[in-house]
## 1
Amino acid sequence: MNWLTGTLWTSVGKKLLMAVTGLCFCIFLTLHLAGNLTLYAGKDAFDSYAAHLHALGPLVTVFEWGLLTFALIHVGTGLLLFYQNFRARPSRYAVNTAGGGRTLGSRTMPYTGVILVLFVIMHLLNFHFVDKTHTSIYQIVSSAFSKPGYVAVYMLAMVVAAVHVSHGFWSAFQTLGANHPKYTPFLRGLSLVFSVVVGIGFGFIPIYVSLLT
Amino acid sequence: MNQGIDITLKVWRQKGPGDKGGFEAYHAGNISTDMSFLEMIDVVNEQLTRDGKDPIAFDHDCREGICGMCGAVVNGRPHGPEKGTTLCQLHMRHFSSGDTLVIEPWRARAFPVIKDLVVDRSGFDQIIIAGGYISVNTGGAPDANAIPVAQEVAERAMDAAACIGCGACVAACPNASAMLFVGAKISQLALLPHGRPEAARRALAMVRKMDALCFGNCSNERECEAECPKEISIANIARMNREFFKAGLFSATR
């Protein structure tokens, strides 16, 4: 295992861990969004989606543990990189001016990341670790979003997620070494489109549900 | 002759590596707009010397933008505000009378300040020593074109080889990462057939040395590419990543 850890535990290797786990989260976000959009088809469609998903049984459990492992790798490596990068410049500049490379997404990555971790914990407490024996998923969702506070927090969290993804998506490809004169501009564009889809796609669900109730 | 400009400088003065350091204000009066930035500092230093004060220490050598010795952060921008320019090739015509310029050294743990604006960039040399070369037996010159290299590939290698090792990428990087430098140095050899035999060993050794020197980690902010006086592309960082993964995960080299 020495050659493997010796590769992954370098600066470039840690970037690889961030990129692979980050891209998997992008795929997860897409699947999660596709499922959530069934809300727009009504209560029955959403509950039936949830029932079909949970009918996968042990597969769901495997996926959950996989996601948790990836989250621990992504967050742990991210925090370590943040600490190392902070230490790499002990005395800061008196004047900081961007040269034109940084974006809102890239300069806020560690902060949006930490906010998202807190959000995911809250989200799991709201919808995952709840007693579902007598209530349907739809009832849980609609009772949560009948509270304006939850609607606001969820919408803000989705803005943060969109900002995080706007840099993370194309950045992951760059880290994997996929930089190409033809495809990189497309990937950077796709990154912005994906972030808008995530922001609007997830962000409007709380409003929609709160308007229904 | 053009009327000179008057500017105020706030220069980082630090007596030595252990000194805390701080900013000192200087007045640079009647500066010709045809002067380079370094010539402007020369003028200030002449006055400081006449006044019996310690002149501002700064690195410089060729003063024609090819040696990579000069460099300071001017108002937060490595090598000043002009794109694709070293500090010695930055002319005072880009500034106006009344401007205040804050001049700082490259700031990174791996580039400790020696004095004022002079930093120790020997870390870059150590990275090159770790593997930034090819081993060739000396002897008769080989036939030209004995090894075919496509023009396009030769150009890309040359673009990477344009790196002068000034360290602006590290200075510009919000994380003080040296990956543009290392990416360029790995790429210039990885792209050519002559560099392939040692490619795996080189990628592993140079990246490990870069990490050991406590440079930061790249987070694809693209500030290095924006500030590089030779406008080296982050495509070279992606190539370094590819070379490193290939070497670390798929080659027999350890």
## 2
Amino acid sequence: MEKNVKFVQGNEACVEAALYAGLNFFAGYPITPSSEIAELLSGRLPASGGKFIQMEDEIASMCAIIGASLTGNKVMTATSGPGFSLMQEALGYAVMTEIPCVIVNVMRGGPSTGIPTHGSQGDVNQARWGTHGDHSILALTASNHQDIFEMTVTAFNMAETYRTPVILLFDEIVAHMRERLVIPEFGELPLVERLRTSVSEGIDYHPYLPREDGRLPMSDFGGVHRYNVTGLYHDMWGFPSTEPRVVHELIRHLVDKLENRVNRLAHYKEYFLEDAEYVLVSYGSAARSALHVVKERRLRGERLGLLELQTLWPFPKEVVHEKCAGAKAVIVVELNMGQVLQLVKMAVGDPERIFLANRIDGVFITPIDIMKILRLIQGKGV
Amino acid sequence: MERFRMVFSGSGGQGVVTAAIILAEAAVIIENLNAVQSQSYGAAARGGSTRSDVIIADSAIHYPKVIQPNFLVCLTQPAYNAYYPIIRPGGLLLTDQRFVNTEDKVDARQVELPMHSAVMEQIGKPIVFNICMLGVTISLTQVVQPESILKVLEERIPEGFLELNQKALNLGIEMGAAVKI
């Protein structure tokens, strides 16, 4: 039996990856369909010398991981829609104070408590604009367990590299199904560790003074340096400022550090796009049904292709524009009322070519559902 | 290999989900095949009728659910009534005589076996009913080798219960072998 092959749920793949990436602090409040993440980490983290705390709610969970990250830990929390709503204020605090953290949202049907036991992809826009104020955010997703592993490790790496919260938008279908996961050897996937300041004890440390390369080295809070952290606009010492230049430069910095790197941050997979007349654009669990359709129709000579997005935010508009340029029609496959559809329309700039194949009734979209839409678009009836 | 699309259904507590996981795990970990397992979730999984889908293949599996199973197990009457219409024509439908009265109008080969009473008579513990069913399943379908299931059981089952499960598995294999398809 190969030691590194597992047959697990998607949630467990996320846990394995988080530990691989160096997670050593988790605070959360279990909620369907993400509960297995908290359940598994409540055993695994203490066993490996880390800390697991079940908090009183999701507001406290988000605040706890921010604090723990500031003291030098790699941190994560996991939730679903209702809990993710509660985390939004503190998520904005992590954006403003530039504190690395990973937030898993295993999507279920909303709004409100919605349909807890069924899948959905309705939180795509919440991930982008759930917290108030101009900002940029990173959100990744995946359609299978191997990719969940890779994207979870990537999320930790991006959080450290750009000092930002990273959201993992998984969904109930992939989170609960079981399939093969091959856990990579250590060293196989690169890991980004915390960039700590070289300023020694007794010398003034400026928490928000960038190095020449733009990065902000951190000092473990409670360690050798005293400094201020605030959700208010702040200067290089971390103290509040209403100075227009300071305010302007900080908001530009928070947005530009991600928006200027859209292409570098864009993770995606492509299938049969070279000569595709019809391009499906999908992500997460829905991409599994889309890929099923593409492979099946290719056997019959139909020129279908799939662009599977793994980075949802910042939205990789140039990638989408380029990959869809030659298509007769583009069909966005998703489990919501067209959240990524709107983005694809803007990216492709030719809205009459863009169609939606979706399901919003809690049932996972089937290949037949997609085929019916495709037939209509092709003028072949249903 | 042929692509196996299987649905296991019954009531919460009968162990149909566990059996499905053991089968799929044996296919992936021991036999290096691909398998995807999913299950009905929510209140239904806690006492109502429950369902687990398994696809086993030697090629990639993308769409993870089963729409038309070619192998269907129903261990209660409500599960049978709900799912017998979805069987792929020509498929195989396994039920337990004690719990299910079958219909004639099913376009599939129906195999009715007294699995529960055999387990009670020969082993005396109803908890291994699901493993007996799994034995019948692999005997009828040949989807994985019995040794592969045993290896997974050895990993998952506490030592004190292993013999009980092995007995139930063998009982099921024998019952399945006696069926003429």
## 3
Amino acid sequence: MSQPLLHIDDLYVHFNTSDGVVQAINGASLTLNPGEIVGLVGESGSGKSVTAMSILGLVPKPPAIYPKGRILWKGIDLLTTPDRELREIRGGEISMIFQDPMTSLNPVYTIGHQISEMIRVHSRISAKTAKLRSIEMLDLVGMPNPAQRIDDYPHQFSGGMRQRAMIAMALSCSPELLIADEPTTALDVTIQAQILEILEKSARELNVSVLLITHDLGVVAGICDRVAVMYGGRIVEEAPVDDLFERPLMPYTWGLMRSIPQMDKVSTKRLYTIPGSPPVMSRPPKGCAFAPRCEFVIDRCHTEVPQLIEYAPHRMVRCHRVSEPDFIAVLA
Amino acid sequence: MFTYTIKRLLQSLIVVWAAVTLMFALFFIIPGDPISLKSGEKSLPPGILANITAKYGLDQPTYVQYFRFWGHLFKGDLGYSYKNDKSVNTILHDGLSTSARLLFWGALLQLIIALTVGLTSAIKRGSLGDRIGTIFTVGIQGIPVFVSGLLAQYLFGVLPFQMHWDWLNFFKPWPQSWTAGVIPTDSWKGIILPALVVAVVDAAFIARMLRSSLLEVLRADYIRTAFAKGLSARRVWFHHALRNAMIPVVTVYGTSLIAIFGVAVQTEKVFSLPGMGSTIADSALSQDAPVVLGLAIVVIAFGAVVNLVVDLSYALIDPRIKIDSKAVH
Amino acid sequence: MSEFEQIPQSLSYWQDVRARFFANKISILGLVMLVLLIFIGIIGPFISGWKYDELGPDILSAPFQKGHWFGTDDLGRDLFTRVTYGIRLSLTVAIIVTIISVFVGVTLGGLAGYFGGWIDTLISRFIDTWQVIPFVLIGFAIITVFGSSFWVIVAALVFTGWYSTTRLFRASVMQVKSLEYVEAARATGATTKRIILRHIGPNAIPPIIVVLAFSVAGAILSESVYAFLGVGFREPTPSLGVMISGSRNFLTEKPFVFFIPGSVLVLLTLSIVLIGDGLRDALDPKLRGVK
């Protein structure tokens, strides 16, 4: 492929708080190509949301500081882009949808107003045209009766419908990248699948890249082309989705997979859980962030941060033991 | 919106009726003694006494008095003072123009100060100005209006006069000697200081309310959405945040508009303004029930209108209100 | 690893509240101010050497002269003595009024909030009615009819303050009532009495504590307003409002007659407001960080 759409290069994000400096991101790198759907997976506190918010410059500074790294959007570093230009990109080229559709829409304006507002910020068109475009977008995401519902307020919609409206809004200015931050977490299980399907369908139809942030590997398996796993503020593994599920290379990914309930296998054993708790990011471990919880830990893990290496084509991993063939066999 | 308005209107009528009845009950079921008021300490011949009692209708049973009272009220007749036979309408009319002027400028200044201070301190939170504003708004809560009124008189009247600070000679020409309440109040210059005193206490409170309400709203998810849409900070502040932040503020502003009467009474006394407040204070002291009741009715009606306007604007700002009132109960 | 074992100990709620309250410099300032004022109020009359209504020979003498620390008023009465009595009077009246108001508020608000239905409608409508009557008017009306004795003034102040405590307690009970653990308690078959006393009561307490502070401050203010307007305490009762009212004519020549009782009144209410602010922030951790 040609130039990547988005390239996050060795990003560091720290927060100055009253409890000290929280090192939310400690050198995260990620690349996204046009038209690709990439999953960013991790537990809460792993830094995945901060990464996403950083792309759009939505992390308030202070308390956040960016000591190191770049976020390259088609070659431009978003971290140093002035606000005026960043605003053009926000919504216009990169748009975002959030976890809780209940609270992500302004309660005092109609859905139509909120979608049209976004369209009119990014293109010089009349209110009438913007409204027609909004109806079109709502129709695209499968909202019934869009022409009437456009004048309804958010509280008149169900959670699933609100998230559809959010997706419609996010796609209304034909962005090149859609960041979806836990788009289904707050929804009913039955609605989750619908929303994911709409997300994937609309994205593929409009040729929009998606960065899907989630803690749920199941979500990733359904719609992503590629997955990056994040732990303790770093990407620990990155692979095409099928490869990752077939053979995880990093003990954390391996643990995550073992902790998914398997519907098709009858098991008498208890479901696996990863021991311990996530690192406290105001006092991150010296070595590998996962070392204190890792079953395969060696002395070196506690003292030295492993590098992200290319284990095989398109397969990146951050672990000291990937070079041991026996170890890889155990994980498979 | 129409049914909502009608419903609220009926509710306020009921509230006015109940409040006026409450006041009536207080004054007339336990009657004052209008006769001694007229005669002073002298005892009157029985014939005259009966005449006076009949004149005010006090010889009738309470319920008759009550219905008569409403009958007169519908005709716009508030009765007659026990003290000097003047009609209550005339007495109130005399005081009303001064009070209305004071209240109008007071309420307007209050809104302007509250919005300006609240908005700027929220936008520039943590700045020196914000900290001074916070100290000021917290501090002023502990100052009763009559104290701030006297203080204002001292600082802007007495002191400049005594120190010959001509740059502050706002109230020029200086009076020959300064005693409390001789600021000329016939021009707008005279009304501005009392109006500021009326405004400033609740303005501080509303400003604080607006500030914390705005800061809370700014942490809402939909504000993040608005920024993610590519809107300018100004647009997010004024279009998305302010309207939501105003919802609790409107209620507080309404409450303060009702309370502004008490503030005005104190201010009028401090500045010796011949308004309704002075009238009611004098009448209460001389137990002149019809005048107090008459004014009470005016004030209650005003309060009910304010409440109605607040409720309706509430519904205009927040679309959820109408639906909720239908859905709940 | 040892560095992970230093997870901060979880404090109990009230320990946490105390820690938060004492970490707030402004509320400490309020507390210190209040303690000082109470101390002066208690010992003042014993050390001044004057009675509050004793007419001395020196009229309007300036502070720190002729044995009067704060000077004298137009009748030659010792201002220090009168001010200390004023503190006593303000606080006594305010505390009595607050106790009664909170009692009324907890009872009516609790009833309305817990049972809802017609009880709630009745009480809420009554509050709506009451709210359109400005507080000064209530005082005027009561005092027009009953004159101004100590207990009438207390009653007038209760009538001006009861509904805000009622409304607040009602809201807070309704909020707590709908919380999940109360639902859970009800599901396990707990009795109404037990639910109110064990589950709702303790959780509705924090707002009551805050209201307590603001109610005391409000009662002090209202009492002084009534006194200033001539419908509260009257001469020679040493109410701060009475003293300030009497000082109006001397604002030009002897401003200290206004400034001394005026600043005591302001410091007194301000200290309580500051404590109330501190308590509110300390009791409601959600509001922490809101600056």
